[in-house]
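WARN retry 2 of 3 for item q-0093 after timeout on previous attempt; input resubmitted unchanged.
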Amino acid sequence: MQADMTDLRGLLEPSIESLGYELLLLEQTHNEKDAVLRVYIDAPGGILLEDCEQVSRQISLILDLEDPIRGAYALEVSSPGADRPLVKPEHFARVLNQEIRILTRDYILGRRRFKGRLITVEDEQLVIEVDGEEYDIPLEGIETARLVPNFDD
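OK item q-0093 returned
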């Protein structure tokens, strides 16, 4: 099970948006026994189980018809959760001044893991403050990024 994620996003995103949801992230995981396509969706009022079921039914039809993924896999549609994934520039813009966790594809000043306060997002680049130091990180160089939940508020 290995599909091109850009092609898969292009295939599924219009249908998900037509239902009133935002496609946040697609993840593929697989091991010797199991393969999973995980689809994270969001909406302004949040996501309920019924929302996940509706999107799952809709995209299952598309996946069955287009058959973009080789082999057997399970489809999971999920809300982003408290540690929501951050993918697009607008996702980062929504969480300015909040704590985020980033894993970069390449080393930046000797490190790939960053956990700190998001200061700015501009021109396909963000600035994160980690332990009093600021790091410029290009969005295209981010492997994964997630909001760090703050349960004190």
